[in-house]
Amino acid sequence: MQGVAMAPASTSFNRSDWQNLSTTAPILKPEFPWEKDCIEGASVIEKNGQLYMFYAGAYNNAPQQISVATSSDGINWERLFVEPFLTNGKPGEWNESQSGHPHIFANPSGDDYLFFQGNKTNGKDWVLSNVEVAWENNLPKMESGNSLQSPL
């Protein structure tokens, strides 16, 4: 489950410096069947005054898949999709065991990329890949559509 905490800019990262801002409930917890028992690996980007959290649902290789939630304040989040934004691959594909551990990267040139880990060996090995993320009507979409190419 995801929570949110805050510390002053001058923090020395001591436990006493942090204030839990999600005191009544997690900001995001598993709700959909594909999320299973875990929400993890959150990575956040700001676009036009709105925050977008790319997160992994389910534990590694369960399979882990990626989706997106949005917030205007960083504390109250709403999912954008019922199904994963980026699914694991089909049997035999390079990411059949998982597409997880997301990181959304805002390139200073204006292109955004979602980096993620995939594998087809149930975690015995793994590869890193990325897809370009475009924005349409304040919603993220994969530039290459939903078909992912095998990483190099």
Write up this protein:
By secondary structure, the chain is an all-beta fold. It has a single domain (about 30-140), classed as Glycosyl hydrolase domain, family 43 (Tachylectin-2, Chain A, 5 Propeller). The chain contains no helices and 10 strands. The model has no long low-confidence stretch (mean pLDDT about 90).
Note the main attributes of this structure.
single chain, 152 residues, mainly beta, 10 strands, 0% helix, globular
Ordered list of secondary-structure elements with their pairings:
Blueprint: E1 5-6, E2 19-20, E3 39-47, E4 50-57, E5 65-71, E6 78-79, E7 98-106, E8 112-119, E9 127-136, E10 139-142
Antiparallel strand pairs: 1-2, 3-4, 4-5, 5-6, 7-8, 8-9, 9-10
What's the main sheet like?
4 strands, antiparallel
Instruction: Give average pLDDT, whole number.
Output: 91
**Gap from first CA to last CA:** 33 Å
Poorly predicted residue ranges: none
User: Which structural class fits the helix and strand makeup?
Assistant: mainly beta
Q: How many individual β-strands?
A: 10
CATH superfamily: Glycosyl hydrolase domain, family 43
> How many individual helices?
0
Shape: globular
Number of domains: 1
Spatial strand order of the main sheet = 3-4-5-6
CATH architecture: 5 Propeller
CATH topology: Tachylectin-2, Chain A
Task: State the gist of this model.
By secondary structure, the chain is mainly β. It has strands at 5-6, 19-20, 39-47, 50-57, 65-71, 78-79, 98-106, 112-119, 127-136, 139-142. It has a single domain (31-139), classed as Glycosyl hydrolase domain, family 43 (Tachylectin-2, Chain A, 5 Propeller), CATH 2.115.10.
